[in-house]
Batch of 3 targets.
Target 1
Amino acid sequence: MYFAIKHLHVTCVVLSAMGFLLRGFWMMTGSPRLNALPARVLPHVVDSALLLSAIALAVMIQQYPFDAGWVTAKVFGLIAYILLGTVALKRGRTKGIRLGAFAAALLVYAWIASVALTKNVAGYLAVAA
């Protein structure tokens, strides 16, 4: 069961990133698709499955936020990613602010993925050092 849930989780990680990149492209080009119903609903479906699978995995491996540092880092990274994504796709007042938030959200996403792969709060920075 663990591997099935982990596979679901990783699939949702990839789908979430692909969706964010596509919506970021639509934001940059001013496409009306950004406000279409699928673009507003599907990310919530994917991210809900992502979060539920993450909780299930944390319970299965008994690694919890505020207990395991790398899991805590991922939770705080997720919060930063959500806030930056909201600024990038909805709340940024200018295109420049939106683009900056979009780039920052992508960097946070990459860091979260590196923390998950290395099980180290520093992520790939720990490997490079």
Target 2
Amino acid sequence: MTQFKSAEEAAAAGKYVRTVRSFVKREGRLTKGQAAAIERQWPVMGLSIAGGQLDLKAVFGNDHPVTLEIGFGMGHSLVEMAHNEPDRNFIGVEVHEPGVGACLMAAEQEGVNNLRIYNEDAVEVLKQCIADHSLDRVQIFFPDPWHKKRHHKRRIIQPEFVELLVQKLVPGGILHLATDWQNYAEHMLDVLNANAELTNLSATNDYVPRPTTRPKTKFEQRGERKGHGVWDLMFQR
């Protein structure tokens, strides 16, 4: 057990503390289409931690509410949401470059211009680039469940991370999670219920029906045909 309460405190004391990551960096190969989309669209839609804290009005050219999605995979549902809500701005964060390329390619094809992308670690994006009380909605759909018990500590939904998310939400802002692993859904529910600043929007104090704003993925549709469940959680700050 480390004597320091956080990695920042350890760094200030000149010590390095290894942090547990919720993802494994997989270096998949880019298709030619993905690579070309990155080359064309990254100068327009790409963001980096090196750019520092975002001025959202300057980035998007308007004052529309902002949704942040963490771990958008190949980005198809994120692009669909951005296309369906032109009066809302979207920021996507994904560590896997092929997913970033696929998302940019889909955004280009749909003519979406209210979307920006980070190819970075979401924790660092939140800490270094997103101002407190600036996000209207945060969504995390189907994060890695790390289903083996010994790996549960790697799950992204943990009390400290939720505190960071809440800090970035405006009062009245929404935290929307979804998973197809019941054990993870129960874990998510426990963690969110334990945060005093969050209120469950479920009429039954557990899960909500899938909101129409969250498109079904092909993976989700395939799972439903096999009888797999999906659990959505919506909490309000």
Target 3
Amino acid sequence: MTGEQLIQTLNKLLKLHQNLYEVALQKTEILKQNQVEELKELLNKEQMYVQAIKQIEDERVSKTAEYLDGDEEVTLTACINKATGPEKEVLQDIFDDFTDVMNQLKNQNELNKELTKQALQLTSITLDTLFPKDTNMNYDKPLNKPIQEKQRRSIFDSKA
């Protein structure tokens, strides 16, 4: 197999990761603005990209295995080591682009995680303020029981 097919697959995969990064950026803005409906739509879009990445990744693994003739691990680094000439340069550029986009995606996802955590904490505090919990959950006998209740007789006389 030629490296051209592998390069095409890697470019597709790279493009999907870049699109996923764009979605992560949009998610940050939506989280900042607390737009729940838009967040639901964006999560669906994100899920579509994740599914597409899984499919292309499976394709990448098989094409990488073909390219390497099953000799080594199916990594991009192994492909770069095997390649020669302009093919090696293209693979190295793709590797560098992947490294950049993965680092950006990781950082953006960490930020989104923190924003989500803060939003949940704020919601929890707001709910606790609106609906405070009872501090005493044990059974207590009323202290000021009316005297009339003690002297009241039943309709049925148990001595009869």
